[in-house]
Request: fold
Amino acid sequence: MIIRNSLRAAAVTLLGVAALTPMLAQAEPAITPTGGTEGCVPFYSSEGPRPCARVPVTIGPTATMGEGICAGPLTASGAAYDGPVSTNAYHRGTPIGAEHFVTLQLISGWWLTPSNPIGACNLHATLHWRNLDTGAAGAETRYLEPFLCINTFCTPEELDRKAPSVYLPTGPGRVHIDLTTDHPGIPMGVDVVVP
Reply:
């Protein structure tokens, strides 16, 4: 009797799932902030547009030298996304419509006090990337000026030089990223699967 009731409950559950599946497949498409039917936002949204698939990425902190007599940590932090993104409000260097990419922010020093980071150095940082599945590769270099301005008084352009965001058009798949500088330092790398 117990087995028969369990089989009945399982059959009802399976029929319910089968009945709901077509309705789920016909759900309304996500709407972007611009009114389109495709696209996603880089962070979770409670207002309709679907969130992009996201894989967190962090490189470092690694020790490096900078201009003059300066030594401190350098970190790259961000995420890999599937896209296509419908807004670049969060990462202004990312083109709208970008798909299968990584965006990272470069931070020099320990930002315990954002207006005056500890151990920050002016330097050129380079992110080298290679897609292990397709062979595509590239590199992006940015110059960091961490003491350029106080955060509450920074213009957007100054913020981009203080802690720049870097867009890497890697494509989907397994990607290796290395972080290096133009001064003596310890190169660091990370492997990520870009959705």
Remarks:
- The longest strand covers residues 54-65.
- Strands lie at 54-65, 71-81, 101-108, 123-131, 137-144, 165-168, 173-181, 188-194.
- The two ends are 48 Å apart (CA to CA).
